[in-house]
Design brief:
Chain lengths: 113, 109
């Protein structure tokens, strides 16, 4: 599992509340990614990071922000959760020198009511 | 047009047969191609990566890439019931990654 953990694993929250999901890795990988997975849409990239304090937007970044203050932690924040952000969120890392092969964490199931 | 297109299936094959999964993509600048397997309720796991035209074999799996036709495929030989899963095609274009919606495969004992 490339030493990736995600927390929480499940969360139910109300519309309009802020939510932060955490991805933690133990193997000092430079590249980290946040995806969401929804039926009919597959996996879609939200944000990615190529180092501490270096982040960039993916395909579906609206409504999400990220931070990476330490190599091992990549945080995804929903500033004001909406029902359309109900999804399964996966964190992934890339191994250095392996040309973008990605390895995924166990996922967080988020429900916004 | 989606960046990556896959037939959603379901695809059913008998045990021991060859399963053939296909994927087309729209951006000719795509550089790297990947196949992931995802069991229900689990995270995707990498099966194969392929970067140049031709075939790449790893055990019972063979990935095929044809950049001229913008086509990637995955063959699973001697299919086993444990291969029953959803298979995701993925690629990267620059720093962006795109996944297909997946093909559901069922291997019938």
């Amino acid at each position: 599992d490339a030493g990736i953990t995600q927390s929480p694993r499940h969360k139910v929250t109300e519309t309009g509340t802020p939510v932060t999901l955490r991805c933690h890795q133990t193997e000092n990988h430079r590249y980290m990614y946040w995806y969401r997975q929804d039926p009919g849409h597959g996996l879609r990239l939200i944000h990615y990071s190529y180092g501490v304090k270096d982040t960039d937007k993916g395909e579906v970044s609206d409504g999400y922000s990220v931070s990476r203050s330490k190599t091992e932690d990549f945080l995804l924040t929903l500033e004001s959760a909406t029902s359309s952000q109900t999804s399964v969120y996966f964190c992934a890392i890339s191994l250095a020198g392996r040309s973008y092969e990605q390895y995924f964490g166990p996922g967080t199931r988020l429900t916004v009511t | 047009q989606k960046e990556v297109e896959q037939n959603s299936g379901p695809l059913s094959v008998p045990e021991g047969a060859i399963a053939s999964l296909n994927c087309t993509y729209s951006d000719r600048g795509s550089q790297s191609f990947f196949w992931y397997r995802q069991y229900s309720g689990k995270s995707p796991e990498l099966i194969m990566s392929i970067y140049s035209n031709g075939d790449k074999e790893d055990g019972r799996f063979t990935a095929q890439l044809n950049k001229a036709s913008q086509y990637v495929s995955l063959l699973i030989r001697d299919s086993q019931p444990s291969d029953s899963a959803t298979y995701l095609c993925a690629l990267n274009t620059g720093n962006q990654f795109y996944f297909g919606t997946g093909t559901s495969l069922t291997v019938i004992p």
